[in-house]
Known about the structure:
This protein folds into two domains: 5-160, no CATH class; 213-343, Histidine kinase-like ATPase, C-terminal domain (Heat Shock Protein 90), CATH 3.30.565. The protein contains eleven helices and seven strands. It has helices at 9-30, 36-39, 44-69, 76-107, 113-169, 171-187, 189-209, 217-232, 255-266, 306-315, 340-343; strands at 215-216, 239-243, 250-251, 275-281, 285-291, 321-324, 328-334.
Amino acid sequence: MKKLFIHQSLFRLLSPLFSGVIAYLLILLVNNNVGQLQEEFLGEELYVCIGLSYIIQEVSRFLLVLFNKIPRFNTTILSLGVQAFISLFVGIGVITISITIYYKKVLGFSPDNEELWLFNSIFSSITIIYVLLFISHQYLYRVNTEKLKEEEQFLSFIEEDFKEFKEGINPDLLFESLENLLVLIQNDKDKADDFIDYLATIYRYILASKEKQLVTIEEELENTIQLASLFNYLPYRNVMISSSIQNSFLIVPRALLFIVEQIIRTTIISTQITLEIFIEEHEDSFKVHYNINDKITSPFTLQKITEIQRVYRIYSNYDIEVYTDDITRTISIPKLTTKTKLTT
């Protein structure tokens, strides 16, 4: 309602002037008394018409505000019909009372039915215009709101598609691997072949897992070890993964893969310093822990695994948790089964 221009102060101040003048001219035209304009345009009748126009516009505006706050009918057409009828009925009552008071108090006699009909016919049009403005505003607002929702939904689809595309290709890993591949092709073709095999294995798993909701820990762990081997071909990387997992359970695809990659990318390592990542199984979870040696500009934080946490909440009531002491950081990841969400 606040967006509708009829509620603006400038419109409420100037609009009655124009509508009052038009009403005054219509009354003179109907009474065949246009010649009075040459004698005295700024007469008492003009001010009365402007005053009536102001009253009827403020009453119509008040009714619009009132209708906007009270409960409506189930159907929009019925609500608008009732609103238009009540607004017109109240407007006729206000005009009739105002004209009657003016005639009796100022002119000294009561208006006849013809005069009341004339004033009601002209000034009721102002009420009708207000109702039509409100209806058109509501319609445009609804149409624009639906279009905005469609645009927001379309934008969210684009963002989700881009996010899936980015997660699928993992551009940082891809470009870094391609750059290193160019060096290996020139210096050591045998290593280049092995490097391509590791890279193909990782991306084959990444692309195939997009169609799966859950994967086994064995499959995820196997490809995580392949990822570590791939990183060991990159400059200044020395990664070793040890696992004590013996039982089979489910995991969100690429969860362990992504977490290990973030650990590698946020840890200061070199060919002389080995990054050892230990994966241990517990009753309801498995834990990834390693010695802390965070990069100054890009330390490991929960924000880096926000997307994995969001996906995990779909399947489990338990979150991925991170514990840090002076030496070691531990990442606890819940085990998943086909009944995890129901039993937790």
